[in-house]
Amino acid sequence: MDSIDLQKLAQRSRSKKEAGFALLFATGVLALFLLIPRAAQPAPAAITIATSTTPDAFAYVPIEARAAIVYDLVTGKTLYEKNADAQLPLASLTKLLTMYAAFATLSPDTPITIPDNVTHLYPPHAFSTGQVLPLETIARLTLTASLNDGAEAIAEATAARENRTPVAMLAGAASALNLAQTYAVNGNGLDVSSTVSGGYGSARDLAKLAGALVAEAPTVAAATTKNSATGTSLGGTLFSVKNTDPMVNTIPRLLLSKTGYTDLAGGNLALVFDAGMQHPIAIVVLGSSLKQRFTDGMTLVAATLAHFAGVPSL
């Protein structure tokens, strides 16, 4: 074997030895890594879930109505809601919109003349053609007893002052309050047909509307909290009407009450009362029954009082 072959052989031998030493070293390092215990890993931080200890007074309220709301008129917060933005027939709650529109346009002593066409409307009604009453007087009688002739007379007089149709006038009032779900085709809320109501709106809209009317015409709203109302026409005729809400004496610090009922709407109710320290709350019930609307309303009043008392129920 020549010298070149011997040199190659020696180089191969050294390469194998170096590879063997490298493999042995790597094996030792791996063994040390596996045998040395790992440092203890810190335990994950505990997660704290905030819980409220304040009882929910509205958690289990039994409401028959299709829609309802308890709305804080001071903070603008909703304390309770059930389908509160659903657009439903309003029946005589439409009269709240008529009254708000009238007092936003006319002065309380504006004379309202009863036109002949309104005296033929479906009851309840109380006036005769040609009678004249101050707006505040006819409004108190109309809202308390839910008079259809009075509401329509007020709507027509307000529309005439604004030089608009009653429908356009009522739409303008709803727009001024940003009532997106509310519109009316007459001033009294009577069903126009078996499928079309005189007015539509949501429980949320009606809560805001009721609060706005209390602020705009507080004496008219206050009349609806009594068992009856009286008033005299400019011709000297005395009127006395009964409230359509039989429970006005049972609600503390009541500021407004308005009922509504038609075949399309079912039983409706709007209330505003002071929960304490000038803190008005609006309650609206839509799509209940003729009697159950009052039970629904009282249930929500009781839950509201319990809410502010910080207890689950009264």
What does this structure look like?
The protein is α+β, with helices and mostly antiparallel strands. It has helices at residues 3-35, 94-105, 135-145, 148-162, 166-176, 203-216, 218-223, 292-309, and strands at residues 67-72, 78-82, 88-89, 111-113, 132-134, 183-184, 199-201, 228-232, 238-242, 254-262, 266-274, 280-288. The N and C termini lie far apart (113 Å).
- Give the spatial strand order of the biggest sheet: 2-1-12-11-10
Number of domains: 1
Strand residues, percent: 15-25%
- Mean pLDDT metric: 88
CATH superfamily: DD-peptidase/beta-lactamase superfamily
State the shape. globular
Helix tally? 8
Question: What would you say about this model in short?
Answer:
This protein has 314 residues and is of the alpha+beta class. The protein is built from eight helices and twelve strands.
